[in-house]
């Protein structure tokens, strides 16, 4: 299969690593042609803490995906999360030298580049610069300034910041696993792309992605990302609590949570009991489901309250910022019984479980449309998007030598240099137009990794 037909998303999670191969069908929907999954051993709360184990897990997931899809994988778009991620609001402006020309891509690019120069705390780097609204000569609430006249171009930005070392460690793992880094994307943004509809983003919605090690939040309003946060708790702390509270091993605690766990203690009768086999001939343990759900309930309430605090910090209680579409829960942790009801009870907001089938082709495997794979599906979508950005500049560059061949025989040799010079000039511009601000970050990371060898 041709490399241009498919793209690969790699979700490096705390509990699992997923490599997903997808392509776009003729209706613009995404077909998943292969998924590889491996247990994630070297990642804690979304941050790599054991390079060797992470590399092995990545290789296993990629090999599985390759054998299912029947393709060889060389490049991946990777998701980044972890407790080191934070976001801030920033506004900036540029004064344009030429008033008589309309605002172009280059002006928007210059404005975004200016934000990249913000001074961060030591060891931090900007991952995403996401423009919200623009102002042109004081005229506010402009969604798309390109094509307008104006001298002063201003914008509000949502800036996502992360720890340089954590990002480089992920880059290192990808490179050591024999893969090329195609791009980096913030995981809450990837999940949001996979499970939210455009109407929800317009109306105002909070996406809560409950993973194993972290809970990611992304808030949209008027179709624009307004707030992102990563909370360093997820499904694993619930398992940990069950393990401690019931004095059992982790594997049993995880099974108990998945099979019998509920976030709402009132649901279980007092006489419902689960018997757990003892270790190596010891007596079996009996656990009441009511106690189990009390343990789960206490921790889930804590996670939801932290997320709700972030939603309030964004300003959900102001009329203008109200999230009309409420909350969408996704990620593996969202499959906990009665979680939807508990979230509605605590926040008073409409809630639904988000499945990543918004953009998937109709005949996709039902397993893939599970909330567990929301981030991976979002990363595949991003990878396909990056691919569309690429081909054009290369095509132009390829045409160049042909132009020279035609010119050489007919034109005076002295004039030859001038002709081709005009063509290369256009090539970079089409690149500028399509290059996302994140690509530069990825390029810098690639350079760093190459030099670190």
UniProtKB/TrEMBL annotation:
Residues 402-436 are annotated as: Disordered. Residues 423-436 have a biased composition (Basic and acidic residues). Cell division protein that is involved in the assembly of the Z ring. May serve as a membrane anchor for the Z ring. The gene is ftsA. Residues 7-195 form the SHS2 domain. Self-interacts. Interacts with FtsZ. Pfam families: FtsA (PF14450), SHS2_FTSA (PF02491). This is Cell division protein FtsA. It is a peripheral membrane protein. Keywords: Cell cycle, Cell division, Cell membrane, Membrane. Belongs to the FtsA/MreB family. HAMAP family: FtsA (MF_02033). It is found in: Cell membrane. Signal peptide: none annotated. Its main location: membrane.
């Amino acid at each position: 299969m041709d490399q241009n037909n498919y793209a690969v998303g790699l979700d490096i999670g705390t509990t699992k690593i997923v490599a997903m191969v997808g392509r776009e069908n003729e209706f613009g929907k995404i077909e998943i042609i292969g998924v590889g999954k491996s247990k994630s051993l070297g990642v804690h709360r979304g941050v790599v803490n054991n390079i060797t184990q992470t590399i092995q897990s990545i290789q296993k997931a990629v090999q599985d995906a390759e054998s299912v899809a029947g393709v060889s994988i060389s490049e991946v778009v990777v998701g980044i999360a972890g407790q080191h991620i934070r976001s801030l609001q920033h506004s900036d402006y540029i004064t344009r030298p030429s008033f008589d020309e309309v605002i172009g891509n280059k002006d928007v690019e210059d404005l975004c580049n200016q934000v990249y120069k913000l001074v961060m705390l030591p060891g931090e780097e900007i991952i995403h610069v996401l423009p919200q609204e623009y102002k042109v000569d004081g005229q506010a609430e402009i969604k798309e300034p390109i094509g307008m006249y104006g001298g002063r171009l201003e914008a509000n930005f949502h800036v996502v910041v992360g720890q340089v070392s954590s990002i480089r460690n992920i880059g290192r793992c990808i490179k050591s696993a024999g893969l090329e880094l195609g791009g980096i994307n913030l995981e809450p943004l990837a999940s949001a792309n996979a499970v939210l509809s455009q109407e929800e983003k317009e109306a105002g919605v909070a996406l809560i992605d409950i993973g194993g090690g972290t809970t990611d939040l992304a808030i949209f309003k008027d179709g624009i990302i307004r707030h992102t946060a990563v909370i360093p708790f997820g499904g694993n702390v619930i398992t940990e609590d069950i393990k401690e509270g019931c004095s059992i091993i982790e594997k049993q605690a995880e099974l108990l949570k998945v099979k019998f766990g509920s976030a709402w203690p009132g649901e279980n009768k007092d006489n419902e009991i689960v018997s757990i086999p003892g270790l190596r001939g010891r007596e079996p343990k009996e656990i009441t489901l009511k106690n189990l759900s009390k343990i789960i309930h206490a921790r889930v309430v804590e996670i939801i309250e932290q997320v709700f605090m972030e939603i309030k910090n964004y300003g959900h209680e102001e009329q203008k910022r109200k999230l009309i579409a409420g909350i969408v829960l996704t990620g593996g942790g969202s499959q906990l019984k009665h979680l939807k009801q508990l979230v509605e009870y605590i926040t008073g907001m409409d809630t639904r479980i988000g499945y990543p089938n918004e953009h998937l082709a109709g005949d996709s495997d039902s397993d893939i449309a599970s909330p567990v794979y929301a981030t991976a599906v979002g990363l595949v979508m991003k990878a396909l998007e990056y691919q569309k950005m690429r081909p054009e500049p290369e095509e132009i560059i390829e045409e160049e030598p042909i132009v020279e061949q035609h010119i050489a025989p007919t034109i005076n040799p002295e004039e030859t240099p001038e002709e081709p010079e005009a063509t290369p000039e256009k090539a970079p511009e089409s690149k500028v137009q399509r290059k996302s601000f994140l690509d530069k970050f990825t390029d810098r990371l690639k350079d760093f990794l190459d030099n670190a060898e």
